[in-house]
Amino acid sequence: MFSHNKRLQYTVRVNETNPGLANLMLEQFGGPQGELAAACRYFSQHLAEDDPGRRDMLIDIATEELSHLEVIGTIVAMLNKGAKGKLAEAMDNEAELYRSIHGAGNDSHVTQVLYGGGPAFINSAGVPWSAAYVDSIGDPSCDLRSNIAAEARAKIVYERLINLTDDPGVKEALGFLMTREISHQQSFEKALYSMSASFPPGKLPGMKAFSNVYFNMSQGDGDTRGPWNNEPVFEYREATAAVDGGSGLPEPRLTDDEAGIVSQLALRTASDPASNPATGVDLARLGGQVDGSLLDGSDGADGSDPSGSARSAP
Q1: Domains with residue ranges and CATH for the chain
Q2: Model-level pTM?
Q3: What confidence tens digit (pLDDT) does each residue in 268-298 have?
């Protein structure tokens, strides 16, 4: 069950109305790196997790992410509050109201007019939240790595939001949320490396001949060697075709009947490499007059009249 405490996890203080900043804050409310996506991701993982330690950690962090959703949503509502009142009560004339909600190049009019200043489950560009943001796959070694990356991305978004405001109260609240991303990332990393078999993900081993091979697929200036492609972990190879020793060509196995039909199709749809047929482009380029000499030196290979008399396209 869930039990809600009416007090926020972190006190939010906002100095002044700022609808444009509120709109940007929606990135962490209804965006792909936001708190709702994180809460749903970890909650769904917790439901399917069999390990008691990871299960407990996932539901703790999922629940905390919901509290962070409440914090960021409160920031959005507080930044919109003054503008929301003006719009709802029509305190200014039409032109002034329009200027105040549209701001200097931001899209805050979306949240003001459509959602009345409340936090909507959209990102800062107005794109609705999507369950596609929840990328759990049901394998703990995969999901934990995804969680680590998600916390890292969210931390960067919070950094960028902090850099966009000079409101000390907003900066402080955002700093708390950013810091919790760091803590969660560490928890997920500890959980990942506490697994006795965390790499490679899943049960099946890779093909030994290729598991530790680095293929240099982009030759030329800029080739660089480092721990990502160096010995002793990696065997460095130049890119070649058919590394399995085969032909490198498609080798379908067909019945005699299928092979005959495929050959018939290939014959029927074959191109004539010696031809030079008149096309619509040729007709347009030459004003509708096409003859053999203009196309291929008047040898008539394209089906035109070698005498040079004009003919129309079929």
Answers
A1: 19-193 (1.20.1260.10), 276-314 (no CATH)
A2: 0.78
A3: 999 999 998 888 888 888 776 665 555 554 4
